[in-house]
Amino acid sequence: MKELLKQARENKHLKTREVAQLLGIDQALISKFESGNRKPTREQVTKLASILEIDYETLMVAWLKEKILYEIGDDTNLGIKAMKVAESEMRYEVAVKRHNLSASLTAILNEIDSLKKILDQKRAFDSFRIAQALELEYTFESNRIEGNTLTLRETDLVINEGLTVSGKSMREHLEAINHQEAIGYIKQLMERGFSFNERELLSIHNLILRGIIPEDAGRYRRVQVMIKGSSHMPPQPNLVAKEMDGYFLWYESQKSKLHPVVLAAEMHERLVTIHPFIDGNGRTSRLVMNLILLQNGYVIANIKGDYDNRMNYYNALESAQTKSNKEDFLLFIAQIEKESLERYLSIIGT
């Protein structure tokens, strides 16, 4: 583990002092981690994985291995027997946790996985023009959810023709342009294999609000907000940074455990519940969700902005935020992804 930490830090051209500042600990501890004289806590391992952009699973396995070997010491034979018993019990626990998903959600996820297998065999039929058209629809629908009145055709004219639509506000024009650029940005992240972290989130949000509220673009809110039409009260502004630390820690610990569609839906719901920005939370949350889906080989889950779909979306979110019941929201997102996969396959011809 010590080699992993030192090599990753040097690859990022960071000093031990800089890593210590980001981690909020004494510089001497970083040197001890790298020399093997001190072991980081589980929480510190999670933060180090994010800061140094080390694969969380790789680093956690190395950390757990060293803890196990330390505890076993010279009792090698007993240690091997104990690990065999532990392996059996852990496999049972994993099986139990998987069955915590409802029958309805499990059924949709199985359908999604079947559709993805078909899609994986049809990748040769992918087309830039098809992707461009679907991304345009996504920009149109995501903005429509938030009250943008540009039609699909007008959105196309603004983005692809550079035209100004009479009777539409400058903000609506910028929302279309900015969202399309944000889609391009998450596709770049996906293609480069970048790990999702705070820097990337703030960059996505910066694109969404660029030229609209420039002083708040890419920055956490500094005032209390209320969500129109919702009884959910987001955390106080002085708690936002802490909540976001927890958000990224949760992601690092769960990204290799959860089904990608469940992970994407959870990251969407958790972000919009914290509501870390003064504006643009919905669009940013949906972009984060779709970044995770694209990284895992799925297609963009495009939530429609018409009244019925918008109300179903808001009601499912409200249930997750105020009743601690995420089932409706997970089912809603899974159904949207299933329909998006079916449509994509029908377009490319299967």
From TrEMBL:
Residues the entry annotates as binding ATP:
279-286, 313-314
Residues covered by the Fido domain: 196-335
- UniProt KW keywords: ATP-binding, Nucleotide-binding
Query: Quick check: keyword Nucleotide-binding in the entry?
Result: yes
According to its UniProt entry, this protein's organism is: Flavobacterium orientale
Chain positions of site Important for autoinhibition of adenylyltransferase activity: 146
Name the chain's protein.
Answer: DNA-binding protein
PANTHER family (alphabetical): FIDO DOMAIN-CONTAINING PROTEIN, FIDO DOMAIN-CONTAINING PROTEIN DDB_G0283145
Q: Which residues form the active site?
A: 275
Q: Where is the HTH cro/C1-type domain?
A: 5-59
Q: Does the keyword Transmembrane apply?
A: no
Q: Which GO terms describe its molecular function?
A: ATP binding; DNA binding
